[in-house]
Specification:
Strand content: over 45%
Largest sheet: 7 strands, mixed
Structural class: mainly beta
Helix content: under 10%
Length: about 120
């Protein structure tokens, strides 16, 4: 019953920037981790960046130094700031969240619907 709503995708020129947002809503007690994945045509879905509740982050080697993941716990929202974008960054970007529901000692993973990022001249 958790919904992840993504926004911020679009068309940008090489070297440009975009900021993706993912807001989680629904039956949430806590969010343990959130991350961004991407999938380009003909390629496997890959982890781009992740952040856990303690604030630790992890990035794919291909985006280190260019992308920054952050979160606003009060809003249950995670962001992905993407700078110095390259054509190879073109993909559908998906938000993923590991959530603990209320009155439960389990975790569940949820996916957003995806937002298209296109880097082209």
């Amino acid at each position: 019953q958790v919904q992840l709503v993504e926004s911020g995708g679009g068309l940008v020129q090489p070297g440009g920037s975009l900021r993706l947002s993912c807001a989680a809503s629904g039956s949430i007690f806590s969010i343990n981790a959130m991350g961004w994945y991407r999938q380009a045509p003909g390629k496997q879905r890959e982890l781009v960046a992740a952040i856990v509740s303690g604030g630790s982050t992890n990035y794919a080697d291909s985006v280190k130094g260019r992308f920054t993941i952050s979160r606003d716990n009060a809003k249950n929202t995670v962001y992905l700031q993407m700078n110095s974008l390259k054509p190879e960054d073109t993909a559908v970007y998906y938000c993923n969240s590991e959530v603990t529901p209320p009155n439960a000692r389990i975790t569940r993973r949820y996916w957003g619907q995806g937002t298209q990022v296109t880097v082209s001249s």
